[in-house]
Amino acid sequence: MPELPEVEVVRRGLERWVSGRIVKTVEVRHPRAVRRHLAGPEGFAKALAGQRVGEAMRRGKYLWLPLDDSPYSVLAHLGMSGQLLVQPEDVPDEKHLRIRIRFEDGQGTELRFVDQRTFGGLSLHETTPEGLPDVIAHIARDPLDPLFDDTAFHAALRARRTTIKRALLDQSLISGVGNIYADEALWRSKLHYERPTGTFTRPRTAELLGHIRDVMNDALAAGGTSFDSLYVNVNGESGYFDRSLDAYGREGEPCRRCGTLMRRRAWMNRSSYFCPKCQRAPRVSS
Ligand SMILES: [Zn+2]
């Protein structure tokens, strides 16, 4: 699953190479890739043809292309292995090419959705007055969004009787923070993942948000150099981001702050990585 910085790099690539272009044809090569679109592959192709693609948008890990003269947006689901590629038209098809979108201009490049595992796809949804595809209207703003409200987030955190990592992964509270960046930000903040949110003070919330933003911006800086190439996205597994992670995946290795061996705990079907000394477990109480 790509995390927010990877998705933002894809968004910038789409903005650079696709926004403003008019769709000529859409070829759906695998019906599963448009299964979320109720009118089926033909309806999908018909709805897009002749439409001008607007500014590429993102909220959290969701990515979409509004259509300028249409009430609809194209929502991309990258899933586990989905990639959006801008390729010269004469480049041979990828083995797992699912959707091809050609444009009316003579730029000679096309947009391809490639997905080995077919969990991802593209779908059309009505755009809300706020500019979001209606199916993601409930997703909270992400911490890199200029309109993210730190004060409201703190209040919501305090009101929610949960633990901090659960809260960070709750997309209705804050979006775009995945397992990796949650562990990294908690390590930087010296906070245990099971700390109750009710114990958070305003400065502590502010510090945590600051670390979340730093971690994401570091990843963006690491990946931002490559997006100018035609290759819009290499999804996660490519080492595209040469991440220098301090917590995630470092079980048994020394904490970069205190040297204590890092630990991993099973957590909600995933893992949490932490330093047992820097990130003390909260005392058990109700
Ligand atoms: Zn430590």
UniProtKB/TrEMBL annotation:
Q: What is its EC number?
A: 3.2.2.23, 4.2.99.18
Q: Which reaction does it catalyse?
A: Hydrolysis of DNA containing ring-opened 7-methylguanine residues, releasing 2,6-diamino-4-hydroxy-5-(N-methyl)formamidopyrimidine; 2'-deoxyribonucleotide-(2'-deoxyribose 5'-phosphate)-2'-deoxyribonucleotide-DNA = a 3'-end 2'-deoxyribonucleotide-(2,3-dehydro-2,3-deoxyribose 5'-phosphate)-DNA + a 5'-end 5'-phospho-2'-deoxyribonucleoside-DNA + H(+)
Matching entries from InterPro entries are given as: DNA_glyclase_Znf_dom_DNA_BS (IPR015887), FPG_cat (IPR012319), FPG_Glyclase (IPR020629), FPG_N (IPR035937), H2TH_FPG (IPR015886), Ribosomal_uS13-like_H2TH (IPR010979), Znf_DNA_glyclase/AP_lyase (IPR000214)
Give start and end of each FPG-type domain. Answer: 246-280
Instruction: List, alphabetically, the SUPFAM superfamilies matched.
Output: Glucocorticoid receptor-like (DNA-binding domain), N-terminal domain of MutM-like DNA repair proteins, S13-like H2TH domain
Tell me how the cofactor is bound. Binds 1 zinc ion per subunit.
Q: Which UniProt keywords apply?
A: DNA damage, DNA repair, DNA-binding, Glycosidase, Hydrolase, Lyase, Metal-binding, Multifunctional enzyme, Zinc, Zinc-finger
Q: Where does DNA bind?
A: H96, R117, R160
**Which prosthetic group or cofactor does it need?**
Zn(2+)
Q: Which residues form a coiled coil?
A: none
What are the catalytic residues?
Answer: P2, E3, K61, R270
SMART domains for the chain: Fapy_DNA_glyco (SM00898), H2TH (SM01232)
Record-annotated Formamidopyrimidine-DNA glycosylase catalytic domain positions: 2-120
| Example GO biological process | base-excision repair
Q: Which GO terms describe its molecular function?
A: 8-oxo-7,8-dihydroguanine DNA N-glycosylase activity; class I DNA-(apurinic or apyrimidinic site) endonuclease activity; damaged DNA binding; double-stranded DNA binding; zinc ion binding
Complex and partners = Monomer.
Record's family?
A: Belongs to the FPG family.
NCBIfam families in the record, alphabetically? fpg, PRK01103.1
**Protein task:** Involved in base excision repair of DNA damaged by oxidation or by mutagenic agents. Acts as DNA glycosylase that recognizes and removes damaged bases. Has a preference for oxidized purines, such as 7,8-dihydro-8-oxoguanine (8-oxoG). Has AP (apurinic/apyrimidinic) lyase activity and introduces nicks in the DNA strand. Cleaves the DNA backbone by beta-delta elimination to generate a single-strand break at the site of the removed base with both 3'- and 5'-phosphates.
Name of the protein: Formamidopyrimidine-DNA glycosylase
Q: Gene of origin?
A: mutM
